[in-house]
């Protein structure tokens, strides 16, 4: 079995990069893993992760073009399963977060099984911003992206029971 993992990777400085490096290094002992990471081509992998059994393709940068770049490279890996890491700002700014469903729909159209690990789950009644209009719009955006993840993914992984309770309970957003 071959898994294509889409994530950040050391030396990128975020928790998901370190989490992914540990996860896929251990997973590679059981299955073939190829990581599609957001490391610029001229940047060297962190020394501690250079000698792992994980193949790392450095192909995407944060920004609005990441869905097509990731899809193109991941599709070429001829993997059996795609594992996407999801963090609200993992792929760029606010606009990039709204493009994550595009990436999921590309994998759905290609009939490539897709597993998403959601690192942050925001409840439907979260108070994100003080401004009521901005808060309303951000809650709609969060609901849209979260629903798309649940709809387009074959499996969703969350890290604790509270997150599972939030994603399992899917009533309409009430204001």
User: How does the helix and strand content classify structurally?
Assistant: alpha/beta
Shape: globular
Order of strands in the sheet with most strands: 3-2-1-4-5-6
Compute the number of helices: 6
CATH architecture: 3-Layer(aba) Sandwich
Question: Helicity range of the residues?
Answer: 25-40%
The total of beta strands comes to: 6
Summarize the structure.
The protein has a six-stranded parallel beta sheet with strand order 3-2-1-4-5-6, sandwiched between helices. The chain has 175 residues and is of the alpha/beta class.
Structural features:
globular; six-stranded parallel β-sheet; alpha/beta; 175 residues; single chain; 6 strands; Rossmann fold
Q: Could you describe the 3D structure shown?
A:
It is a single chain. This protein is of the alpha/beta class. The chain has one domain (2-121, 154-166): Rossmann fold. It is built from six helices and six strands; from the N terminus they run E-H-E-E-H-E-H-H-E-H-E-H. The protein has a six-stranded parallel β-sheet with strand order 3-2-1-4-5-6, with helices on both faces. The longest helix is centred in the C-terminal third of the chain and has 21 residues, at 132-152. The termini are far apart.
């Amino acid at each position: 079995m071959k898994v294509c993992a889409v994530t950040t990777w050391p030396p990128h400085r975020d928790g998901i990069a370190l989490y992914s490096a540990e996860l896929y290094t251990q997973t590679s002992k059981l299955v073939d893993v190829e990581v599609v990471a957001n490391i610029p081509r001229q940047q060297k992998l962190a020394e501690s992760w250079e000698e792992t059994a994980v193949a790392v393709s450095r192909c995407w940068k944060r920004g609005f073009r990441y869905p097509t770049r990731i899809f193109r490279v991941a599709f070429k890996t001829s993997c059996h399963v795609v594992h996407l890491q999801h963090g609200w700002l993992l792929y760029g700014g606010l606009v990039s977060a709204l493009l994550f469903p595009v990436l999921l729909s590309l994998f759905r159209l290609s009939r490539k099984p897709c597993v998403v690990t959601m690192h942050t789950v925001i409840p439907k009644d979260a108070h994100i911003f003080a401004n009521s209009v901005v808060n309303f719009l951000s809650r709609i955006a969060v609901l849209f992206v979260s629903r798309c993840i649940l709809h387009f993914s074959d499996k969703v992984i969350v890290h604790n029971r509270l997150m599972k309770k939030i994603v399992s309970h899917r009533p309409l957003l009430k204001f």
